[in-house]
Inverse folding.
C-alpha cells in the first residue's frame, strides 16, 4: 500500500508524529491553523527529534490550507486536543474521499462517535475507515517549531475502528509503519480506557483552594496534589469507569494496575496516591496555576461527559463522576457542553443499540 500521510495539527504531538513518519521514510505533510507555524516548518523542511528518537524527518510541506494538506493523502491523522475536534472535523469532512483512513490520535472519549455525527450533520457519505487511538503515542514537547524533544514512545497504544468491522482495514493502513498501535475490540475500549479523565479533573477541582490562593504557591501536581483523600476519590471514580466497561463486556485494568505495570512504582496493594508519590517520572511536574486548563476545560466535557453518556446507555450509576462534572460546570461556567448523547448522535440508544453501532453488526 502506498501511503501519503496528512498530519492535522502542528503542536507537540503533530510535529512529533510528522517527524517520526518522515524519519521512517514515509511521505508526510502537515496542516496547522497558524500560518506562521506552517511557514516556519516549510523553511526548515524537516523536523528534528531528540532523546527517544535522535534524527530528522523530512516533510513534503506544511500548510494552513486544509484542502492542500488532504489532496493526494490517503491517511489523515488528527493530532489535536479534543476541544478542537468538532471544528477541525468540519474543515476536514468536505475533503474526504472514498478509501481514505482517518485516525483520531488520540480521541479522548467517544471522539470517533462524534466524528461520525459530524459527517452525518454535513451530509458526508464518503466511504472512509475511521479509527481512534486511546492515547498519544509520544510523551513530547516542542523546543521550537521543527525541533521536538520526545521523552518516550509508548509501546502498546490501543486503537479501534468505528465500526469495529473495519478494524482489519485500519490495522493494514497504520500498523505496518507504526506497530506500536494494537487493535482492541471497539472504540468503547479506547474511550473508557482513557485514564486522563480520572487523573486530571478531580485532583484539579479538589485542590481549588490551593490553585486559587493569593499568592499562589506552586506545588507538584502528582507528588503533592494527589493526597490520600483525593487518591481515594479518584479510585472511586475509577471503579465507576470499570463498571461501565463491564456492562459492555469489556474488562479494563484499574488505575492502580496501570501504574504498577507502566511505572513499576508499587504493587497492587499500594494506594493510588502513594503510587504517584513513588513514581520518579512525575518528579518536577508542577500544577497549573488556574482551573482554566485542559485538565478541566477539555477532560471534563470531552472525556467525563462522554463516559457519563455511555454509562447512561448501559444504566450504570456514576455518582463520583457526576459530582466532578457538576462541580466543574458550576465553577467554570464557560465550559463546553461536551459529548452528550445529542452531541454524539446516540440519543435513545440502549446498551445493545450502542454495541451494535460501535461493532457494525
Amino acid at each position: 500500500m502506498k501511503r501519503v500521510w496528512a498530519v492535522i495539527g502542528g503542536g507537540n504531538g503533530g510535529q512529533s508524529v510528522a517527524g517520526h513518519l518522515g524519519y521512517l521514510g514515509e511521505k508526510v505533510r502537515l496542516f496547522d491553523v497558524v500560518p506562521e507555524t506552517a511557514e516556519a516548518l516549510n523553511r526548515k523542511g524537516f523536523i528534528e527529534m531528540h532523546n527517544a528518537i535522535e534524527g530528522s524527518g523530512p516533510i513534503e510541506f506544511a500548510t494552513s490550507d486544509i484542502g492542500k494538506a488532504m489532496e493526494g493523502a490517503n491517511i489523515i491523522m488528527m493530532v489535536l486536543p479534543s476541544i478542537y475536534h468538532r471544528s477541525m472535523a468540519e474543515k476536514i469532512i468536505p475533503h474526504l474521499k472514498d478509501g481514505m483512513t482517518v485516525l483520531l490520535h488520540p480521541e479522548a472519549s467517544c471522539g470517533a462517535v462524534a466524528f461520525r455525527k459530524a459527517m452525518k450533520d454535513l451530509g458526508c457519505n464518503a466511504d472512509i475507515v475511521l479509527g481512534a487511538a486511546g492515547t498519544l503515542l509520544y510523551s513530547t514537547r516542542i523546543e521550537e517549531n521543527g525541533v521536538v524533544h520526545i521523552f518516550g514512545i509508548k509501546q502498546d497504544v490501543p486503537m479501534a475502528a468505528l465500526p469495529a468491522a473495519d478494524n482489519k482495514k485500519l490495522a493494514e493502513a497504520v500498523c505496518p509503519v507504526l506497530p506500536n498501535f494494537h487493535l482492541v475490540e471497539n472504540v468503547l475500549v479506547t474511550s473508557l480506557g482513557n485514564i486522563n479523565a480520572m487523573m486530571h479533573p478531580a485532583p484539579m477541582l479538589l485542590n481549588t483552594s490551593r490553585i486559587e490562593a493569593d499568592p499562589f504557591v506552586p506545588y507538584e501536581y502528582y507528588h503533592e496534589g494527589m493526597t490520600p483523600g483525593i487518591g481515594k476519590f479518584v479510585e472511586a471514580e475509577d471503579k465507576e469507569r470499570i463498571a461501565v466497561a463491564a456492562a459492555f463486556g469489556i474488562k479494563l485494568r484499574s488505575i492502580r494496575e496501570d501504574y504498577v505495570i507502566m511505572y513499576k512504582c508499587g504493587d497492587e496493594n499500594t494506594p493510588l496516591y502513594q503510587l504517584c508519590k513513588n513514581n520518579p517520572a512525575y518528579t518536577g511536574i508542577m500544577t497549573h496555576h488556574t482551573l482554566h486548563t485542559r485538565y478541566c476545560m477539555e477532560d471534563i466535557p470531552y472525556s467525563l461527559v462522554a463516559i457519563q453518556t455511555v454509562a447512561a446507555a448501559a444504566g450504570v450509576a456514576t455518582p463520583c463522576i457526576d459530582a466532578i462534572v457538576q462541580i466543574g460546570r458550576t465553577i467554570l461556567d464557560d465550559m463546553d457542553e461536551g459529548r452528550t448523547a445529542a452531541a454524539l448522535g446516540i440519543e435513545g440508544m440502549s446498551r445493545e443499540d450502542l454495541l451494535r453501532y460501535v461493532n457494525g453488526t
About this structure: The longest helix spans residues 228-247. The chain has a mean pLDDT of 96. The CA atoms of residues 229 and 266 lie 19 Å apart.
